[in-house]
Amino acid sequence: MEKRKFGNTGLKTSIMGMGGFHLLEIHLEDAAYLLNRYLDAGGNYIETAESYGDGQSEEKIGRSVPGRREEYILVTKTTSRDKKSYLKSLDGSLKRLRTDHVDLHIIHGIGALIPEKGTRFDDLKRILESGGALEGAEEAREKGKIRFLGVSMHGQPDVLIEAIDRYPFDAVMATINYYDRFNFPRIEEVLVPSALKKEMAIILMKPVADGYLWRSAETAFRYAIDRPVSVVVTGVNNRDMLEQDIKYFNGFRPLSGQEKEDIYRDAPELGDYVCRQCLKCLPCPEGIDIPGLFMIEGCFDRQMDDGKVGNASDYALRERLKFWYGGEDIAREAYDSLDTKAERCSGCGECIPRCPYNIDIIQKLKNIDYKLGNREVF
Predict the structure, then answer these.
(1) What gap in Å lies between CA 44 and CA 370, rounded to an integer?
(2) For the chain, N or C: smaller number of CB within 10 Å?
(3) Handedness of CA 119, 120, 125, 126 (dihedral sign)
């Protein structure tokens, strides 16, 4: 399996990483088979988190591959924000993982734990300040309990961008897939180039958008592997899935520019609703920043609620995933700050023929007005 440079750590990771969340869904013996088969196939990156089943995922990994500890890079995550709880969290993880150190410890989900009456950036402040989790991590590194330190965030990357500007983390983990490319464009446009410039390892999570791209898995994995990242972390919960994923990674062919544009144009999950941020709908006679509004909608519900119900299972999946990253308050704050909102649309239709993706822009603006404009009826 292809190996890639893991930032400036001196490590090399298999391009396929094994995520530990979905090990919660299966019995210990099945988890053991998958983990050992993954290592036998040349994989060397196993990642989990204390919060996955209150340590159950860590426990399964610790029981499944204890005799192969030198064969893989072991990664776990914590949501602790202060030094004391960080060190306690790490010690608990090490005990469950049956090891004396992890290769990478990730401070997870920054910007999600908002202090009372504070902002998402206050969450980062808590981590970096005296007595914060970072202080605990540096102490743990000195004692050999962790080798490297990372940071992660789901969805909207603004706090993550500031985090890697303020501290030289060894790795950064973010949501990257061809669907959320248009919900959170600053991940690929700002965060990734910044991390590359700083020689940080980039860990790609959510290659199939939490399962939303399951019908297009091969395309989704090809897109993910083609990104300038160190490792693509994917969750696996059965043997057939693991074998298929291994084939995707071993059979990877880089995307041409045209192939990437074809995905953006033709992907069924993007369809005629998700804005590709091409800006061709502008200018608007009413002064509406149409792509900007659609990006706020992406932050709100990942542009999944289009007001249409077709296939029942697809609808149920969208309902489950649309608020997965908790961006509702961020989107409302951004929308409320605008001088010109979606309600300003006069329905003139000048934008409609300009859209290469046949999006009904007028209806989409009405949807946004309902979602973010405090309307009572959809």
Answers:
(1) 47
(2) C
(3) positive
DSSP 255: P
Amino acid at 180: D
Q: Which helix (H) or strand (E) holds 151?
A: strand 146-153
- Show the domains of the chain with their CATH numbers: 3-262 (3.20.20.100), 290-372 (no CATH)
How, if at all, do strands 73-78 and 45-47 pair?
parallel
Q: Other CB atoms closer than 10 Å to residue 80's CB: what's the count?
A: 22
Q: CA angle, 77 as apex, 201 and 143 as ends, to 5°?
A: 85
- Distance (Å, whole) CA 105 – CA 73: 11
Q: pLDDT tens, position by position, for the chain (378 residues)?
A: 999 999 999 999 999 999 999 999 999 999 999 999 999 999 999 999 999 999 999 999 999 998 999 999 999 999 999 999 999 999 999 999 999 999 999 999 998 766 666 788 999 999 999 999 999 999 999 999 999 999 999 999 999 999 999 999 999 999 999 999 999 999 999 999 999 999 999 999 999 999 999 999 999 999 999 999 999 999 999 999 999 999 999 999 999 999 999 999 999 999 999 999 999 999 999 999 999 999 999 999 999 999 999 889 999 999 999 999 999 999 999 999 999 999 999 999 999 999 999 999 999 999 999 999 988 777
Token pair 């996955």: residue: 52
256 vs 262: CA distance, rounded Å: 10
Report which of 81, 61, 85, 82 is spatially closest to residue 73, judged by C-alpha positions. Answer: 61
Whether the Cβ atoms of residue 333 and residue 119 lie closer than 8 Å to each other: no
The answer to whether the predicted template modeling score (pTM) of the entire model surpasses 0.90 is yes
Residues 6+ apart with CB under 8 A from 339: none
Identify the CA nearest to 134 among candidates 83, 202, 89: 83
Q: What are phi and psi of 276, to 5 degrees?
A: -90, 5
